[in-house]
Specification:
Largest sheet: none
Oligomer: single chain
Structural class: mainly alpha
Radius of gyration: 32 Å
Distance between the termini: 64 Å
Shape: elongated
Number of strands: 0
């Protein structure tokens, strides 16, 4: 439905949620194991709003992850590494007459 002002219907007013009610809904999300979207639908509330309330009033914190390190083994030194096959930028296969060549054209 488009609200063009021609009908007597007015858009719904914003609801005011007291902090105690916000905390109750956040507690319901945490205790029930339901998703934020599911609880938000139940109360006809945008899930993004309930998500913000969960971030602000929630007690569950995401698990802290400790930095992890991965061991590295060096197989060969840079001088021992095999050169890749095929053309390379700036190699002998460059056309000296090409306009973008360092030695030719332009």
């Amino acid at each position: 439905m488009v609200c063009d002002g021609s009908s007597d219907e007015r858009p719904a007013r914003r609801r005011h949620w007291p902090e105690a009610e916000k905390r109750r809904l956040v507690a319901e999300v945490e205790a029930s194991g339901r998703s934020v979207a599911e609880v938000a639908r139940r109360y006809r509330l945008a899930s993004s709003v309930l998500g913000r309330w969960c971030a602000r009033y929630g007690t569950k914190m995401p698990p802290a992850t400790a930095p992890s390190f991965v061991p590295v083994t060096v197989a060969a030194s840079a001088t021992e590494a095999k050169e890749p096959d095929g053309p390379r930028c700036g190699g002998a296969d460059r056309d000296p007459a090409h306009p973008w060549s360092a030695t030719g054209g332009g």
